[in-house]
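Thread: "does anyone have the structure for this chain?"

Original post by V.I.:
We have the sequence but no experimental structure in hand. Need at least a predicted one for the grant figures.
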Amino acid sequence: MATTTADAPVVRRRRGALGLLAWLCGTVFFLPVAWMVLTSLHSESDAATNPPSIGAPLTLQGYKEFFGASTGVSPWPPLINSFSASLMSTLLVLVLSIPAAYALSIKPVRKWSDAMFFFLSTKMLPAVAGLLPIYLIAKNGGLLDNVGLLVVLYTSMNLPIAVWMMRSFLAEVPVEILEAASIDGAGLPTVLARIVAPVVAPGIAATSLICFIFSWNELLFARVLTGVVAGTAPVFLTGFVTSQGLFLAKVCAAAVCISLPVLIAGFAAQDKLVQGLSLGAVK
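Reply from O.Q.:
Generated one for you, tokens below.
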């Protein structure tokens, strides 16, 4: 229905109210992050005050402690372990989920909804319920404190979500393009690499980023199954929480540093992420 001149002020007020509401919601979600950054720039005594001191002097001591100024413990090995496990598991998830989603969305598969529900049902089991069996298998197989074990676990944890996401994206691919490629003699690898992948590139970017974030933030399995060699960044972060002394500023500084790679990746792929998350939303 077209908007008349008399309705224009009402529409403007409605849009203004929605914009104000959006800014309010964004501010509410941003405040904890801003508070964490501000706390990381305070001394431990100022960070521990109740209520926290907003106008306290700023210092970089928390960041110096994160990089081992007093302990000599470097955060780079855990950061590299997290990056390696997250990146390799994300690549494996894409390699496995794209063909699976292609079969479930484009190729005729009987009872595809049952298959999709089976994928989703694997996420219904609490992670802690499978912790003991996985620990025993890793112990008997000599896989404890191994980054490769984390790669396998993160791949299996993120694969169901990736299949669900990629299926909604691949369902938007025009079938005529695929039929034309088949007539020209293109095989399945060629179709996936040269036709499907460019069309659903925003969806692949969104799926990759979400899987990377889930892997980067995982703590439970990394805490139990790793030790000195394969410890990840979240495990390293928990090491700043002690029963003695003040640690709030150090924890906030460590949280800021560990969050930066994910934030940078999110900002770099912001346009692709928005396109990907909205790609399968409208039929």
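V.I.: this helps a lot. Residues 8-40 form the longest helix (33 residues).
O.Q.: and DSSP finds 14 helices and no strands in the chain.
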